Amino acid sequence: MRSDGLFFGDGHGVSLESTRRALELLLSSHVTVALLVNFVINVYVLVVLLLKTLFFVQLNASETRKVLEGFVNYILYKGAFLLLVVPPNISQVMIWSSWLIFLCFLKIFQSLARDRLERLNASPSVTPLKYFRVFSALLMVLFADFLWMKLCMIYSLHSSSLFMLLFFEPLCMAFETFQAIMVHGFQLLEICQGHSNESAADCSADSDIQKTASGSLSEWKGILVRHCGFILDMFTLATVLGHYLMTWWLHGMAFHLVDVVLFLNLRALLSAILKRIKTYINLWKSLSSLDGALPDASYEELCAYDDECAICRGQMARAKKLWCNHLFHLVCLRSWYDLCALLNNEVFFLHAVYGSASR
Q1: Could you say which of 10, 23, 276, 357 is the most buried, measured as most Cβ atoms within 10 Å of its Cβ?
Q2: Is residue 332 part of a domain?
Q3: What's the rounded Cα separation, in Å, for the pair 192 and 273?
Q4: Of 150, 142, 147, 204, nearest to 174 (Cα)?
Q5: Any idea where the E3 ubiquitin-protein ligase synoviolin-like TPR repeats domain is (predicted)?
Q6: What is the domain count for the chain?
């Protein structure tokens, strides 16, 4: 035990009180604070650069510009809301600054991974290993996000309701990341299947089985992405809504400029929720109408057209046939149906013909 009372305890460790006092002494010196901040910034930059090299190797000019813009926008936007509710003392500033910088890092990596994967989807020469390297960045973001949420939950149990705000943003990011993992995970499976199909003989029985499996995967991909994507979007929007309401509750109701901004954000968010629900209902109705209006292609017709969709050129386990004998995925036909007025009239005509024939 020290005579100045800085370190004391039972001889087996340092007590909480001595640790708190040691931190107070360290933070009382401006030089020590400056050195500590410099050390943390250098470690943060080093970790970011190492992870960037591991997952993305090299960023192009547009990606670098987007990272800088996203960093500045995220810090300014979230920082402005935190100023409304966070008490102006050193400990609170350190906690919320760490929260903001860590989540900004996850948000940037999530955005980079999604953009890079979208670009790789359009590349015909992409390999499964190259795709998985970028895809694993999303897995890292989701894992780190879950750990951060766990820490936020533990900390909020021993502190005020203010720290419930720590939980909303990582939860929203988890929903977005999981949706991206679902979409690009299916794409990774399709890339792996495509490479295995290329290595197999075209006329072998195994090749036919692989084509059937690929077509089934494509059909299930559309169904799961459509329905699970809607559910995750609703969870994400509901989480953002809870974040705004929590911020408004902690800030207090007062007719200031800040309250007007919060009200406009809430209004835009509610409008986005209603629009997303309406879009999903219209999509479901359109797909149901197309499914009943057009006949299913037989197995012989799928084999005759090499089991490929005439729009996306993907494998098909189930297809719809138009009067011109072209075969389509139902979802691909839906996207074409939205763009082509002539096809709209043709679908309604076919619906009347097949509907009257069935009656």
Answers
A1: 276
A2: no
A3: 36
A4: 142
A5: 26-274
A6: 1
Residues with pLDDT less than 70, the chain = 1-17, 19-20, 23, 27, 85, 156-163, 197-219, 251-258, 290-291, 305-308, 310, 312-315, 317, 323, 331, 334-359
Nearest CA among 163, 43, 183, 177 for reference residue 107: 177
Instruction: Give the Cβ contact number of residue 108 at 10 Å.
Output: 19
- Nearest-CA neighbor of 192 among 172, 173, 217, 226? 217
Q: Report if residue 136 sits inside a domain.
A: yes
In a domain, residue 265? The reply is no
Q: 120, 118, 113, 121: which is closest to 138 by C-alpha?
A: 113
Q: What is the DSSP letter of 297?
A: P
3-state secondary structure of 309: coil
d(CA 340, CA 181): 32
| Domain hosting residue 229, numbered range | 59-252
| Cα 83 to Cα 103: distance, rounded to the nearest angstrom | 17
For the chain, give the number of residues: 359
As a dihedral over the C-alpha atoms of residue 228, residue 231, residue 235, residue 237, rounded to 10 degrees, the angle is 110
The Cα-based distances of 233 to 5, 10, 173, 245, 268 in angstroms read: 55, 53, 11, 18, 15
Separation CA 136–CA 109 (nearest Å): 11
Reported pTM: 0.74
